[in-house]
Recover the amino acids of this structure.
């Protein structure tokens, strides 16, 4: 009996061992299967993460393109949102290109939800020395574009978010008036102002100024006039003429001046032939020579040419629709015309020596667009920059 | 005698026990080897997947850097050694751009398709890149189907 019972016990232990090993193998197999499944899911998830990232980048590009386009358009929602916005203000952006084409980036069985918000991070209306700008709308700040993307898996019938991607980008921006505002509004209120010359112009002068007496007198001493001296509101500084041409601000091929904000150039600028003015802007350079028409594309377009070192020479009988400013610290800023001048805009110089002008009747009429301070604001958002090739596109 | 038999049985294993133990050990060895083999295959597959991803993403990154205008201008000619609408073998070093790729990337070929998109005043391009193992490649890329990645690049004015 003892032998038999021991035999049974030994058989039982082998069975137990076999069951133990079988269970261990099953557990190991299951864990291995789960591990492989997890690895496959990780691969798949990484692929979907890439898709979500590309969608977010595309949304940001469309948002940026919309901002760059709309901040020049006074009829757009973005323009009015940014003009006078306070820190913390937010605006939901609509991105129609993305809405229409997102499905092209998605794999079958997946859908996508996104949101795109514009946020004013901060806005300050004083310069680096702490001097406040004339208008509270002028200033500079930081703008944020916040993109949220959710990828949804619809293969199981229910929508489940599998990937969430956030992209937060900040840009610098500035708002500046093209009329060098002061406490009265536009600084360019009169058709003709001379800072250091007290000559008068009447109907016997060779320079005829339309309705000259009807305009308000200068406030204070004309010698104290300073224009566009808030350099922190300049959009671009120290550019060469070649830079202006490369950026198509001066598009010599199509003869268009694409104006946008205050640009400073350290060269002399010569404009030959007939040019079209598009947009609102100020070009500050050493000196100018105009040898052809400067014609505005629309009533709201505005061009101010400001010579800081030399003079402005006009050598055409064609209509020049621009404000001409030639003033400097050595009081030598002047404008000369070598043919019968036909200027629609305004003229500001340190002095005028009409003896140096051609022996013609010259005409100067005031452009009322120079009065409208409200329409003179330009919003510039920092361009898309990479540090290998300069400005993108 | 019954006492002697008991001593012998307690001191060793029966044939059945040894057979069972060998079988179990054999199963374990097979399992471990399978595990190692599968693990190696999984690692290789992940590496191929990674390579294919890199090969697909490269033109997307380059085109995004160049901007949609530049790519649109070259729709018929291609940019550098990126040809459009045809399967291209991958070189280890691009002669035109200087971009270097791993040796194993040559086991893949790539096709780039660019489609211009326009929405009101906005212009963009849809770039689709497909990557597949080259025909006849041994080892690398085996088991990997065609991989596609796309993006839309919006023109920044």
């Amino acid at each position: 009996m003892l032998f038999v019972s021991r035999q049974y016990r030994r058989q039982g232990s082998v069975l137990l061992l076999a069951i133990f090993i079988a269970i261990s193998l099953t557990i190991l197999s299951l864990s291995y299967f789960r591990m492989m499944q997890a690895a496959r899911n990780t691969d798949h998830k990484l692929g979907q993460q890439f898709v979500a990232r590309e969608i977010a980048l595309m949304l940001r590009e469309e948002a940026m393109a919309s901002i760059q386009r709309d901040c020049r358009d006074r009829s757009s929602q973005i323009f009015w949102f940014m003009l006078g916005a306070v820190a913390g203000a937010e605006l939901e952006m609509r991105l129609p290109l993305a809405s229409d084409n997102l499905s092209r980036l998605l794999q079958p069985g997946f859908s996508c939800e996104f949101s795109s918000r514009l946020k004013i991070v901060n806005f300050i209306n004083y310069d680096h020395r702490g001097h406040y700008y004339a208008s509270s709308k002028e200033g500079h700040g930081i703008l944020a574009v916040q993109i949220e993307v959710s990828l949804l898996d619809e293969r199981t019938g229910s929508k489940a978010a599998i990937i969430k991607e956030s992209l937060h980008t900040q840009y610098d921006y500035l708002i500046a008036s093209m009329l060098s505002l002061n406490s009265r509004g536009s600084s360019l209120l009169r058709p003709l102002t001379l800072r250091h010359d007290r000559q008068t112009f009447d109907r016997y002068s060779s320079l005829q100024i339309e309705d000259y007496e009807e305009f308000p007198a200068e406030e204070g001493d004309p010698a104290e006039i300073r224009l566009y001296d808030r350099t922190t509101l300049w959009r671009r500084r120290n550019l060469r003429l070649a830079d202006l041409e490369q950026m198509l601000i001066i598009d010599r091929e199509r003869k268009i001046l694409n104006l946008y904000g205050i640009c400073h150039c350290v060269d002399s600028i010569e404009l030959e032939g007939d040019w079209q003015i598009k947009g609102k802007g100020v070009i500050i350079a050493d000196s100018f020579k105009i040898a052809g028409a400067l014609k505005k594309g629309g009533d709201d377009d505005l061009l101010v040419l400001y010579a800081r070192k030399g003079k402005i020479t006009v050598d055409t009988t064609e209509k020049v629709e621009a404000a001409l400013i030639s003033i400097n610290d050595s009081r030598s800023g002047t404008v000369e015309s070598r043919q019968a001048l036909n200027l629609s805009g305004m003229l500001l110089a340190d002095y005028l020596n009409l003896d140096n002008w051609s022996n013609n009747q010259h005409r100067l009429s005031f452009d009322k667009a120079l009065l409208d301070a409200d329409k003179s604001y330009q919003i510039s958002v920092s361009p898309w920059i990479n540090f290998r090739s300069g400005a993108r596109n | 005698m019954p006492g002697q038999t008991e001593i012998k049985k307690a001191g060793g294993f029966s044939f059945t026990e040894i057979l069972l133990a060998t079988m179990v050990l054999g199963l374990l060895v097979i399992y471990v080897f399978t595990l190692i083999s599968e693990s190696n295959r999984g690692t290789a597959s992940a590496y191929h997947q990674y390579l294919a991803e890199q090969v697909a993403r490269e033109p997307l990154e380059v085109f995004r850097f160049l901007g949609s205008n530049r790519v649109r201008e070259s729709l018929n000619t291609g940019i550098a050694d990126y040809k459009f609408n045809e399967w291209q073998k991958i070189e280890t070093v691009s002669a035109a751009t200087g971009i270097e790729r791993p040796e194993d990337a040559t086991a893949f070929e790539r096709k780039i398709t660019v489609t211009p998109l326009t929405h009101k005043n906005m212009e963009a391009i849809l770039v689709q890149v497909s990557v597949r193992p080259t025909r006849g490649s041994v080892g690398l890329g085996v088991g990997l189907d065609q991989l596609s990645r796309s993006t839309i690049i919006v023109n920044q004015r």
About this structure: Chain A touches chain B at residues 2-3, 6, 10, 14, 17-18, 21, 25, 28-29, 32, 36, 39, 43, 46-47, 50-51, 54, 57-58, 61-62, 64-66, 68-69, 96-98, 100-101, 104-105, 383-384, 386, 388, 392-393 (CB under 8 Å).
